[in-house]
Amino acid sequence: MGDWSEMPERRSAPERSWGRNPLEVIAYLAVAPLLRGLARLPLSALYRVSDLASWVMYRVLRYRREVVRENLRRSFPEAAPEELARLAEQSYRNVCDVAFESVKLMAMSEAEIRERVSVDLGIARELYERRQSAVFVLGHCGNWEWAIPIAVLAFTDVVIHVIYHPLRHPGFEGLVHSVRSRFGGTFTPIGRAGRAIIRLRRKLTATFLVADQRARGSDSYVTIFLGQKTAFLRGPEQLARSLDVPVVYAEVRRVERGRYDVSLEWLCEYPNGTSDGEITERFARRLEQQIRKDPADWLWLHRRWRDRRAERAEVD
User: Are 282 and 266 in contact (CB under 8 A)?
Assistant: First the structure.
């Protein structure tokens, strides 16, 4: 339960740095002004840049093209080669759109965010009325970057706490942090999540985790996902059970270019009544359902199955 005598706090921005060495500083000083300039363009112009970028990445640089093709082949072995090729190319377009939409977030107004992202807040309002904290889990589908500002704007007296993987470059990490926190919210690198959760445990908190990253440790949960053994992080489940708070699945769906729909559904209302791994299994099943419905919307460039030590360590 949250303590409503306390107002939410915003985590201070990362220590200001343009880079750890001269090359990183030069890269930041060259790229950061360009990104700020691009953010001032209308989305229609940014999508032309996105089309060019996706074509270059897929056709010219072939950036991770074999990774994408192998991921798709493993996940959809029944699909025809031409269908897999179409999905691969579309996935590059979608991920480039998300990248440039995230750049646009530097200059977007509250009104534009609300107009471009629709959301059914029924479950969120129910939690709000109960004065109950919750864990929200989602995958790399649609534009997850645009989903967080909607939560911040809708519930101004709730701590919207986002746990994320920081960038290695300190300059761009600071830039991304400033963009993500423009409308508010508390953003915590995953390495500091434990301390942040302890600090916020007495406040009404909505903790967001993009939970489909590759799991590396021996404490991962292994299940069949998209037809293959896959290790999942146990973090969301462990957090929900330790705090005894519900888990909500957030589906971010691309309606059309530049417009998204967010729907919420219960993944688990009473986590302490579940068995070990049950919540993570539910998340894997719900995410798989979403991916199969709109395959090109997932982040196939991610090396999701590169390191299979966790899967191999699992006893059948």
Answer: no
Cβ proximity of 183 and 176 under 8 Å: no
Domain segments of the chain: what residues? 22-313
Q: Indicate the pTM of the whole model.
A: 0.90
DSSP per position, 227-258 = TEEEEE--HHHHHHHHHT--EEEEEEEEEETT
- Burial group, residue 190, by CB count within 10 angstroms (0-12, 13-18, 19+): middle
How far apart CA 23 and CA 194 sit, in angstroms, is 33
pLDDT in tens, 37-48: 999 999 999 999
Residue with structure tokens 């979608």?
A: 94
Helices 81-104 + 65-75 axis angle, to 10 = 120
Say whether pLDDT at 176 is over 70: yes
Mean pLDDT of all residues in 307-316? 59
How many C-beta neighbours within 10 Å does residue 219 have?
12
Phi, psi (5° rounding) for residue 23?
A: -65, -40
- pLDDT (average), residues 154-176: 94
97/48 Cα distance (integer angstroms): 10
Is pLDDT above 60 for 13?
Answer: no
3-state DSSP percent of the chain in helix, strand and coil, to 5: 50, 20, 35
Segment (H or E) for 119: strand 117-119
Could you give the angle at the alpha carbon of 76 between the alpha carbons of 70 and 78, nearest 5°? 120
At 309 the pLDDT is 60
* Six token digits for residue 155: 């519930």
Q: How far is CA 189 from the centre of its chain?
A: 13
- Going by C-beta distance under 8 Å and a sequence separation of 6 or more, which residues neighbour residue 55? none
Q: Which amino acid is at 154?
A: A
